[in-house]
Amino acid sequence: MISSDVIRGYTDIIILYLLMDEPGYGYEISRKITDRSQGLYTMKETTLYSAFNRLESNGYLRSFSGTETGGKTRTYYELTPQGRIHYQLKKDEWIVTKKVVDQFIK
Amino acid sequence: MISSDVIRGYTDIIILYLLMDEPGYGYEISRKITDRSQGLYTMKETTLYSAFNRLESNGYLRSFSGTETGGKTRTYYELTPQGRIHYQLKKDEWIVTKKVVDQFIK
DNA sequence: TGACGTACTATGTCTGATATAGTAGTTATA
DNA sequence: TATAACTACTATATCAGACATAGTACGTCA
Known about the structure:
Oligomer: homodimer
CATH topology of chain A: Arc Repressor Mutant, subunit A
Helix content of chain A: 40-55%
CATH superfamily of chain A: Winged helix-like DNA-binding domain superfamily/Winged helix DNA-binding domain
Low-confidence stretches of chain A: none
Number of helices of chain A: 5
Radius of gyration of chain A: 15 Å
Order of helices and strands of chain A: HHEHHEEH
């Protein structure tokens, strides 16, 4: 299982990627993460929701309420232009990190 | 530049790798990290020395004093058998992490 | 009706990376 | 020969992100 220290710093990439093409909400994103990683990683609820807050207060996400059929209310998040830029930067950092760490793999 | 959140969790791999074949000491390891990463990453002194302490108290490293020509004393660190196991586990985790994060790269 | 799934919020803890500062011996340079 | 730069650390405190724990509340299905 992937430890918290190892995944730290990549939650941004994961979440922003899944909001790239359309808005999404917590529970949905959570399931998509598990699916897309083939069960290799499941983001804890608290990690996800606190990341939403952080990303929003940094200006990378914007939230709005949506009411679904059934009357339940959800909070949706969508990427801002700065969010797209942040994603690119984090992605570039990831590429470099891979290159660096791979130098220390035997 | 690689941020603290992104490198977090990989300092173990980096340090243990460099102690794989022979003991080493702080300043030397520090320079080797910068060299081997082609200057893409420089580990902060405090990060390195606190990692030494952590790795030693976890039983992954063992330390001993060495006196060099000139009279200066250094603290050398060498890998323990558990340290080698830890390296393997961290390495496996790194492989999985790469696979996971790459699923979220566009 | 009660378990399970959905969709969160609140609060507090822990750890690893880092900032800041200081000590002290060695070597190069002007 | 003074002093700056390099070597080789230690001590202390801070910060942020991941996570544990707990709780709320609505919907659905057996």
